[in-house]
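Feature request disguised as a bug report, sorry. It would help if multi-protein outputs had a clear separator. Right now it looks like this:
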Amino acid sequence: MKMSGLDLRMAYVFMPGSSSFSPKGSPTILFFQENAGNIAHRLEMVHIMIQQLRCNVFMLSYRGYGASDGYPSQHGIIKDAQAALDHLIQRTDIETSKIFVFGRSLGGAVGAVLTKNNPDNVSALILENTFTSILDMAGVLLPFLKWFIGGSGSKGLKLLNFLVRSPWNTIDVVSEIRQPILFLSGLQDEMVPPSHMSKLYAKAAAHNNHCLFVEFPTGMHMNTWLEGGDHYWMTIQRFLQQTVPEKSE
């Protein structure tokens, strides 16, 4: 599909209709993936998500990812995310008042910006194992860089911060979000320290009374949804229901 002037790959998976549920009345989750892989690698998880949450799921392959055209950049990916949301809003086969943004890792940074920029079109945000900023992550992935690159909370002069072209400063973005936010944190995350999620929650909750933080003791960076089991899905299901209650017949 043409989005942002580029040919971007997407996947839209409807919830199967039944006598009790229909795609039209179900929530739609706009899911933003992690840095690695492409949307095809998320189909197993999405299949389970649809069964557990009775929702529709829309996924977008960022520019430069998978078979999508272009080159990745923070500015470009934000444009792609906005184009995906605009596409959903224009559809007539879903309930556009029930659009939720779900981002994991890098996808959380993308989703946070999109949610902040669209207070009237995004019902709520779900963040899973997301970092506070790329500047903070630089010192985690390459420890020797922590003396030269770091976020606003780090000590000392950070002389090489200017080299980071896509800072993804999620810690500041979440403080501006007014929609409900669910934070899902895998405590065994081997890539993004769980402290990043705690800091994101603390920053958001200081400005937003509709924040919920849930930990999963055995969850790692990519498998919290597996390790969390029924508790993981029930947590999200309750969050969706409380955010947009079902209409009474």
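(second protein starts here, but nothing in the output says so)
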Amino acid sequence: MDAYADPDAVARYAERPPRLVPGFADLQRMCTQLLAESAPVDARVLVLGAG
């Protein structure tokens, strides 16, 4: 079965990275802070290879 066709797997998709990647929340905060410091307010960010 395709994992993306399973509604339960899709609903739980975002739960995995914080449990599997040490410092995940800190990494997210750091990225947010760095973007806030360097990107203009109306910047558009293209995230490649994200999940």
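Even a blank line would do. Unrelated, but nice: The chain is about 50% helix and 0% strand.
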